[in-house]
Write a structure and sequence with these properties.
CATH class of the largest domain: Mainly Beta
Structural class: alpha+beta
Number of helices: 3
Distance between the termini: 24 Å
Helix content: 25-40%
Shape: globular
Number of domains: 2
Strand content: 15-25%
Order of helices and strands: HHEEEEEH
CATH architecture of the largest domain: Roll
CATH topology of the largest domain: SH3 type barrels
Strand order of the largest sheet: 4-3-2-1-5
Radius of gyration: 15 Å
Largest sheet: 5 strands, antiparallel
């Protein structure tokens, strides 16, 4: 990774930590909505960053996870390889380019 990219990532993580601790307001917010018609159907898969956890051995803050979106929260595979439900506030869904999503999904399926 280029030094300037690393420094930019480092600054973002420090800023995110300050937002989580309530020291500063977020610069932007992302709203991830699920249509009611999707609630009882096959869950929507998405990529999300862990922004909060109640057990750092099971969920790693600032790590990217593939999640399934349900009306009551997110289903995720934790660090012990177990599927678990987590509250919405534990994750920040992100949108990735299709090529990146495809490659990440292939890596997860191969693991």
């Amino acid at each position: 990774m280029k030094k300037e990219n690393f420094e930019s990532l480092k600054e973002s993580i420090i800023e995110a930590s300050r937002v989580i601790r309530g020291e500063i307001p977020p610069a932007r917010e992302t709203i991830f909505e699920v249509e009611k018609s999707q609630i009882n159907k096959k869950p929507v898969k998405a990529w999300a960053i862990c922004v909060e956890t109640d057990d750092e051995e099971l969920l790693v803050p600032f790590k990217l996870y593939e999640v399934e979106v349900f009306s009551r929260g997110f289903r995720v595979i934790d660090e012990e390889g177990e599927a678990t439900f987590c509250p919405e506030e534990f994750f920040m869904p992100i949108t990735l380019p299709q090529e990146v999503t495809r490659k990440l999904t292939n890596l997860v399926q191969a693991a």
